[in-house]
Structure formats: C-alpha cells, structure tokens
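Researcher: Here's a chain I'd like modeled. Treat it as a single chain, no partners, no ligands.
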Amino acid sequence: MAARASWSSPANKRCPGCRYFFDGQRTLSKVVDKDGNQVNDPLVGLKVLDFPLSVGKEWHQTTNFFNEQTNRSLPMTHSFRVLAQEEVKTKAGTPGAEADGRP
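Model: Modeled as a single isolated chain. Structure tokens:
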C-alpha cells in the first residue's frame, strides 16, 4: 500500500478549508472540502515529481484544464526537468537534495 499524506492550505482561494491528499510520489490524488466532500480539482493526478530524480531527467504530462468562464476543457502539457543537485543544510544534518525546473 502506498504512503499517503495530506495537508490543508488556508491560503487557497479556490477551495478554502480543503484538504489535499498525495500518494508516495507526491502526486495529488484527491481534494476534499471542509465537509469531507470530494472536490474536482484540475491538479489531481498531476505528477510534479518523478522519483528517482537525477540531473537531466525530464518528464511531461498532459492534463485537462477546465475554464469555468468559457465552460471549455483544454489540454495542457506540463514539462519538468531536474536542473541540478544541491546541498542543503538543516538542523537535522545535510542531506542531498534535487532542484527541479521547467524547461
């Protein structure tokens, strides 16, 4: 069973009080409102990270973007690329970290 994590974003204007659930790859798997009802969020399923990360790795994903003003759904392709590996310092030590970017 994959690990799941959730967090709330009080600053989200689209869905105040919503909770966001992620799978083990940090892909958004679902969004629920403050009453526990599932919300149709355009970012559900978007793979922002593709582990394992390595410098030069690229991935692309096409999702549908729904424009509420025009009532149309349009395909949107997202492109990601790992640009560099960086060293970060934390109170817990200095682990390796990957920096990602969009081409």
